[in-house]
Amino acid sequence: MTRRNRRIAGWTAGVVCSLGLVGLGVAFARVGVTEADKWASTLGIFATALGLALTAYTAAATRRSTSHTGPVDRVDNTIRGGEFAQSVVQARDLTVGGPSSPAPAAAVAGAVTNTITTGTFHGPVVQARDIVRQPHDPPVRDDGADPSRGL
């Protein structure tokens, strides 16, 4: 569905809901307060049941869509132009460790492509597959200076 069609569908749904609420208000005004209260209670039960069902469906659908069936086979990181003043990192897995562990978990198989076609970089560029950083590692300092000027 295109952006324009989504916008039209949203406006249409809003107008239909608004007209339905106005019609319901007119109907309640015609039948009186006591009868309207009975109808409102009945409609409230159905609205609650429908809302609960939609919430359960949405939660299940979201959980299904975020679960992975296995490792990612391929990751492509690409930079096509731009001017970068600080550090640039292209990696597949970047892990900033919690408490120090005996050894990082075995890397998951899969190809990684890190590509820079054009651009201006004023800081360090790191291209890697997996990066594991433990809390005891010294901090990375980027003063923005061009390291090639010292050569």
Could you explain how this protein is built, in words?
It contains 2 helices and 6 strands; from the N terminus they run ααββββββ. It has helices at 3-31, 33-66; strands at 74-84, 88-90, 93-96, 111-121, 125-127, 130-133. It is elongated and about 85 Å long. The strands form 3 sheets. It has a two-stranded parallel ribbon with strand order 1-4. The protein has a two-stranded parallel sheet with strand order 2-5. It has a two-stranded parallel sheet with strand order 3-6. With 151 residues, the protein is an alpha/beta fold. It folds into 2 domains: 3-66; 74-139, no CATH class. The mean pLDDT is 79.
Compact summary:
It contains two helices and six strands. Helix content is about 40%, strand content about 25%.
Biggest sheet, spatial arrangement of strands: 1-4
Number of strands: 6
Q: Return the average pLDDT rounded to an integer.
A: 79
The portion of residues assigned to helices is 40-55%
How much strand content do the residues show? 15-25%
Q: Sheet bearing the most strands, described?
A: 2 strands, parallel
Number of domains: 2
Q: So what's the overall shape?
A: elongated
Helix-strand string: HHEEEEEE
